Amino acid sequence: MSLLPTPIRKVLRSDPDSAALERVWRGIQRRRAEKARRTAPVRWALPAVAVAVAFAAVFVVLGRRAGTPDSRTAATALHLAGGGEVVSMVSPASSSRAVDFSDGSRIELRAGARVEPIENSSRAFRVALAAGAATFDVRPGGPRRWAVECGRVSVEVVGTRFTVACAPAAVRVDVERGIVLVRGDGVPDGAKRLTAGMSLEVQDTPPVEIRPTLPDPEDAQPPLPRLAPTRVPAPAGPPSALPTPSAPWKSLALHGDNDSAYAELGPQGIASASETASVEDLLTLADVARLSGHPRDAVAPLSRIVSEHAQDPSAPLAAFTLGRIQLDSLAQPREAATSFQRAIDLGLPRSLEQDAYARRVEAKARAGDAAGAREARQEYERRFPQGQRLNEVRKWSHAD
Question: I want to staple 343 with a disulfide (CB 3.0 to 4.6 A). Which of 38, 55, 67, 320 is the partner?
């Protein structure tokens, strides 16, 4: 059998298109026909088939090696253990909550804690601890670098177990196992490496490093900082009109069964319950809507928090979440720009500020407000001259 006309290594380095594939097959058929005319069919049938199989195998290998970007990255974002999308995680003021992820990691939220996802990709998973305390049990050896932001402090980790507690005047990090890197304005030299048994508390005054005795592996959890008691918002209506803790939808939601909670409420149930719900229940209703695949229904409870409970600590996050829903799920960029501005005005946590300013530029650009997008971009550049999203912001506003 004759040699292939093109070295295999050159074929493997190129990306064959449909036209090239067709030319190859025409060449194969032409050579087979010429050989059939010169020699007996039986003698050359098998070599010809072998050539065809060889070429087919080459292109199959190419297809497997090349693939498409989508096929390689479609499943790279981190998901919940049950396959759901990672969205805002909130724990009721009266109880804790655990969230398990597809890579085996877990976040244990203490009562009243709230965690907001900021970045979720194949290489990084970044969240903001907006309130309270949470323990992060990150599976070692995973492909993503986790980062937890709280105020002016950022905790970076690959695989370990540690607790971050956010209080109005201090942030404390306790490492149970593994290694973390704590960065921030109040951290000595701007960054501090903590190993198992070490803690760091960052306050308005110079931070104090604590080296407790290494915990016994059998101990349940590392010590927690003394935090101010979580304030339970006053009910917005008469007690008889509010959903009770025993309400079926609420019990289902607290156990993570948001689909069943939504079904229990019914198509108009979330809007109806939002009329008399407390802030805590409004947040739960919004989560039920979003996590069950009904983002439009989350608008009512979130809007009520922003408009009627603007002084509540949850109001900035509610406005930010509302903006994301309007921009990403409802194709309402003009409304989204207003919501992001509202979140900024209400005092969004510093860990989410940059994202809010950047998404405001995107929202105005997508709404066709070119002048507003340029103005929002200039404001982003003034506040974050070295911002992580600077290139993206300039792209949205068509800046040079």
Answer: 320
Q: Are residues 181 and 95 in the same domain?
A: yes
Cβ atoms 322, 302 nearer than 8 A: yes
Q: How far apart are CA 96 and CA 10, in angstroms?
A: 59
User: Which domain CATH number covers 323?
Assistant: 1.25.40.10
Determine the Cα–Cα distance for residues 73 and 201; give it in Å rounded to an integer. Answer: 38
What percent of the chain lies above the pLDDT cut of 90? 22
What one-letter code names the amino acid at 342?
R
How would residue 333 be classed by pLDDT, with cut points 50, 70 and 90? very high
The angle subtended at Cα 174 by Cα 168 and Cα 180, nearest 5°, is 110
The Cα 373–Cα 13 span in angstroms is 43
| Residues belonging to the chain | 400
Q: Which domain holds residue 375?
A: 239-396
Q: CA 290 to CA 284: how far, in whole Å?
A: 10
Task: Examine the domain organization and report whether 273 and 148 are in the same domain.
Answer: no
The answer on pLDDT for 305 being more than 60 is yes
Per-residue H/E/C for 36-93:
HHHCCHHHHHHHHHHHHHHHHHHHHHHHHHHCCHHHHHCCCCCCECCCCCCCCEECCC
13-49: b (≥16 Cβ within 10 Å) or e: eeebeeeeeeebeeebeeebeebeeeeeeeebeeebe
Spatial contact of 326 and 333, defined as CB atoms under 8 Å apart: yes
